[in-house]
Design a protein that fits this description.
The chain is of the alpha+beta class and 157 residues long. It has one domain: Winged helix-like DNA-binding domain superfamily/Winged helix DNA-binding domain (Arc Repressor Mutant, subunit A, Orthogonal Bundle). The protein contains five helices and four strands, in the order βααααβββα. The strands form two sheets. Strands 1-4 form a two-stranded antiparallel sheet. α2 packs across α4 and α3 packs across α4. The longest helix is centred in the middle third of the chain and has 13 residues. It is globular.
């Protein structure tokens, strides 16, 4: 007999109960298919990529702490995701080598920060710093479709 646990018998239509708090991330399917097909992410890399998508900052490719809004290091990402620091760092390096993310060196012994390739996913409509798009030019991942971004208009006070 087939399990019917997955069937929704509720009279309430599915949807967002509070649209003001609903957030989105744009994923560029054409490029994701290309990554799956040609980069051959293993399940661990794909899993961390999925988790990282939830940490992308608003109108920036930086991986940020959703509570503090601050850029995150490998150790902070691992801690936030409740994962082993060394293992997480190794997977971040593998994703960096494949051009899926980039490591932003801060120098002077300070922890690196990370950015998601803007041709894979993005959280927002415009980008705060258009130079962040250029970070992914000539990286290990050459997207099948290059995504165009507009600079967030600055607000003059």
């Amino acid at each position: 007999m087939l399990s019917r646990d997955w069937i929704n018998n509720s009279k309430v239509k599915p949807g967002r109960p509070n649209k003001q708090n609903a957030h989105f991330i744009k994923l560029y399917r054409t490029n994701l298919i290309d990554i799956v097909k040609h980069k051959k992410l293993d399940l661990v890399e794909a899993g961390l990529l999925l988790l990282i998508l939830s940490l992308v900052g608003w109108q920036t490719p930086y991986i940020i702490n959703p509570v503090t809004g601050k850029n995150m290091s490998a150790a902070e990402i691992a801690t936030y995701l409740n994962q082993d620091r060394g293992h997480t760092s190794d997977i971040l390096d593998r994703l960096t080598n494949k051009g899926i993310i980039t490591k932003v060196s801060r120098g002077n012994g300070r922890a690196n920060h990370y950015m998601l390739n803007v041709n894979i996913g993005f959280y927002g409509k415009t980008i705060d710093d258009i130079n962040h798009v250029n970070v992914f030019k000539d990286c290990a991942y050459e997207p099948r479709l290059e995504i165009k971004y507009k600079q967030t208009p600055s607000v003059n006070k």
